């Protein structure tokens, strides 16, 4: 304490006072926070404007890979979007007389008025410049960013109105470099109307989607065509219009070169349609294709879970029991617990256990949209019980079958056993006079055609997977034109060389031509 007192006295005598003595201790962190906020704001704006260069390269080289890079970065940037930041970028990009400025200003609201132009100009990197003639790709990209911001802000009504105007405007554009951006615009357009209360908004957009699908098909816009088909199927299934969804699948061919995630969604919706139409074998194939093509990452966990839930119910309706390994996957273990209990009830063939499981998890089944399909499993539970009894007993009376399966009468048991024999569920004979069922001896499955059919299905799947991998290979755009140009230049040089040799313009020092 004495030492500090002496130092303070010396400071007062000399006049060397600490310049920070009169500054509040809390003001320094506030300045640092403000500078940090301005730096983050400037970094976000520069990241957004950096995508303009990629879009320009996509247009110049006619290469969609640059546009896909921009769309991939959108998922990262959307977490940092704010209305003032988007307003700053839009003001810096568009001239005051641009027609898109009014629609963007109405979507962002008061952010245009509260933004300071001088601060915005200081925050944006000096390399960025105002585009007098804004590219349509840059224009649509900024509209897409506003769409994403409105969706994350849960402003569904404003977003639906903004998206409707944007879709009508895009419907009149015909640029192949806009295909990937247009597909995203239509996706968020359908999402906004789906989030609105009631089903009237979802039904109202069908006319626009069908018109856009027709236009995209005529223009051979693969991305937009595949996206709109998936959106229409989702729209029809949300309102239970199964016949219209089936007509769409019949008349609209899904592009084979569509993206993998779109093909997975299309297979899932097609599997749901076939399951409702009682075509369980086709539904099983489509759902297996959807689960295999879906990305096995945390972002796509919801889709993978929904596809596996529906596939489990379809397998049970087909009379098969799903593999236990499906329920042990980390991504599926907890969501599939109700379906594991359902599989156990169907496997043992007891109606009481099946009914208790359905009543216990009815809310979960209704939320997943599989409740109506699960109610069809009652007959499968009875068939499973009959199959197990045919294996356990060489001969059993219809009365015992009626008691074990909790059926109403022996006539019902006789009818069910006869139908199981006709469908090939069991190998047995039914004696109507004495009232019993006698099982046949089990045959060797390897002596039948079943192994050959299974082997054929596996080979077919492997060949299909190989063809899809070959089709999905990417090659450099316009590479053949570059090769033709180089070949043409080589031929021109050869012609000039021949003319010089024939005219005698070349000297002897130019080279030895002993072979001529």
From TrEMBL:
GO terms for molecular function: enzyme regulator activity. Keywords: Proteasome. Residues 506-516 have a biased composition (Acidic residues). The keyword Calcium does not apply. One of its GO terms (biological process) is ubiquitin-dependent protein catabolic process. InterPro entries: CSN3 (IPR050756), PCI_dom (IPR000717), PSMD3_C (IPR013586), TPR_PSMD3_N (IPR057985), WH_DNA-bd_sf (IPR036390). The keyword Metal-binding does not apply. Residues 493-505 have a biased composition (Basic and acidic residues). Signal peptide: none annotated. SMART domains: PAM, PINT. Residues 493-516 are annotated as: Disordered. Residues 264-444 form the PCI domain. GO terms for cellular component: proteasome regulatory particle, lid subcomplex. It comes from the Eukaryota. PANTHER family: 26S PROTEASOME NON-ATPASE REGULATORY SUBUNIT 3 (PTHR10758:SF2), 26S PROTEASOME NON-ATPASE REGULATORY SUBUNIT 3/COP9 SIGNALOSOME COMPLEX SUBUNIT 3 (PTHR10758). Belongs to the proteasome subunit S3 family. This is 26S proteasome non-ATPase regulatory subunit.
């Amino acid at each position: 304490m004495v030492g500090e007192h002496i130092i303070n006295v010396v400071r007062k005598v000399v006049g060397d006072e600490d310049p920070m003595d009169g500054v509040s201790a809390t003001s320094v962190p506030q300045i640092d926070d403000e500078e940090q906020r301005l730096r983050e704001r400037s970094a976000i704006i520069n990241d957004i404007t950096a995508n303009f260069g990629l879009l320009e390269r996509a247009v110049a080289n006619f290469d969609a890979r640059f546009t896909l890079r921009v769309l991939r970065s959108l998922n990262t940037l959307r977490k940092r979007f704010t209305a003032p930041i988007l307003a700053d970028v839009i003001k810096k990009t568009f001239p005051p007389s641009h027609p898109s400025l009014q629609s963007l200003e109405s979507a962002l609201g008061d952010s245009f008025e509260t933004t300071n132009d001088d601060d915005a100009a200081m925050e944006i990197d000096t390399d960025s410049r105002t585009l007098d003639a804004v590219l349509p790709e840059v224009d649509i990209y900024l509209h897409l960013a506003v769409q994403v911001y409105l969706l994350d802000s849960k402003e569904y009504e404003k977003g639906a109105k903004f998206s409707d105007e944007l879709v009508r405007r895009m419907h009149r554009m015909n640029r192949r470099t806009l295909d990937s951006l247009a597909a995203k615009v239509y996706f968020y357009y359908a999402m906004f109307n789906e989030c609105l209360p009631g089903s009237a908004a979802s039904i109202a957009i069908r006319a626009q989607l069908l018109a856009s699908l027709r236009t995209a098909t005529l223009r051979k816009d693969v991305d937009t065509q595949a996206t709109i088909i998936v959106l229409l199927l989702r729209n029809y299934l949300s309102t239970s219009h199964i016949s219209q969804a089936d007509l769409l699948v019949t008349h609209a061919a899904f592009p084979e070169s569509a993206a993998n995630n779109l093909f997975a969604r299309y297979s899932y919706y097609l599997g749901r349609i076939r399951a409702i139409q009682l075509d369980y074998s086709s539904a099983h194939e489509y759902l297996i294709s959807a689960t295999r093509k879906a990305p096995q990452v945390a972002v796509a966990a919801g889709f993978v879970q929904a596809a596996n839930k529906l596939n489990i119910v379809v397998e049970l309706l087909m009379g098969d029991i799903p593999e236990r390994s499906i329920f042990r996957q980390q991504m599926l273990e907890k969501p599939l617990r109700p379906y594991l209990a359902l599989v156990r009830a169907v496997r043992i063939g007891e109606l009481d256990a099946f009914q208790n499981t359905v009543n216990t998890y009815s809310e979960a089944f209704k939320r997943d949209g599989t409740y109506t399909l699960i109610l069809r499993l009652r007959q499968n539970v009875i068939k499973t019980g009959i199959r197990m009894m045919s294996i356990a007993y060489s001969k059993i009376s219809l009365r015992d079958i009626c008691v074990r399966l909790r059926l109403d009468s022996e006539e019902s048991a006789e009818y069910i056993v006869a139908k199981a024999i006709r469908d090939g569920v069991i190998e047995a004979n039914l004696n109507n006079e004495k009232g019993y069922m006698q099982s046949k001896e089990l045959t060797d499955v390897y002596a039948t055609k079943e192994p050959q059919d299974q082997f054929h299905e596996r080979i077919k799947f492997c060949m299909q997977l190989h063809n899809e991998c070959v089709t999905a290979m990417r090659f450099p755009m316009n590479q053949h034109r570059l090769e033709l140009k180089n070949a043409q230049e080589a031929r021109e040089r050869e012609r000039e060389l021949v003319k010089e040799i024939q005219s005698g313009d070349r000297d002897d020092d130019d080279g030895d031509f002993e072979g001529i």
